[in-house]
């Protein structure tokens, strides 16, 4: 018998002063049986960092993720079904990233393991032909602290200013400083 996904609910209050995006978002997150709290919370963080102020170019959505290797963890599809933004987590290989780069207007990766520098050193030179790719490292100790905020029902306040991210609940808070390993060309 296959294990079923665990459903988590998150109420996000986002105040992104860097991009001038503000709003409340109710998320339903299907957590794959093999997914950790850390990875799930990085998905929530990626959502907060990339959600747009309006839906004119489509909505940012969670995908099947771990259940479907042909989809990213999050994506934004426009009204015609074209991929506007492809967002992967972890340490995807360069072939997956180049394929995503060919399909989407922009690609982002959020890596959060302590082995990120080793992974990045191995593929960095292979991605020079991907100008629309942005790669971010979330320091492992910060992503683990974020995982400690995970609950089945969450209310998260997320403030983003000057590249720093503050995630708080009624009882705890975490400060996150993503490191840009590769910036996308504007």
TrEMBL record:
Matching SUPFAM superfamilies: Restriction endonuclease-like
Organism from which the protein derives: Pelomonas aquatica
Name of protein: Uncharacterized protein YaeQ
Superkingdom of source: Bacteria
InterPro entries (UniProt xref): Restrct_endonuc-II-like (IPR011335), YaeQ (IPR009822), YaeQ_sf (IPR038590)
């Amino acid at each position: 018998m296959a294990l079923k996904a665990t459903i988590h609910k998150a109420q996000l209050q986002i105040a992104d002063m860097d991009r001038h995006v503000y709003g409340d978002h109710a998320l339903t997150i299907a957590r794959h049986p093999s997914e950790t709290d850390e990875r799930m919370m990085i998905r929530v963080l990626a959502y907060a960092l990339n959600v747009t102020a309006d839906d004119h170019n489509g909505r940012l959505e969670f995908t099947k993720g771990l259940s479907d290797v042909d989809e990213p963890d999050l994506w934004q599809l426009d009204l015609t079904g074209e991929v506007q933004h492809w967002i992967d987590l972890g340490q995807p290989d360069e072939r997956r990233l180049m394929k995503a780069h060919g399909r989407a207007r922009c690609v982002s990766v959020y890596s959060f393991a302590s082995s990120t520098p080793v992974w990045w050193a191995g593929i960095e030179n292979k991605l020079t032909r991907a100008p629309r790719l942005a790669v971010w490292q979330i320091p492992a100790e910060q992503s683990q602290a974020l995982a400690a905020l995970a609950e089945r029902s969450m209310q998260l306040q997320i403030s983003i200013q000057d590249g720093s991210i503050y995630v708080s609940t009624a009882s705890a808070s975490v400060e996150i400083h993503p490191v840009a390993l590769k910036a996308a060309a504007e």
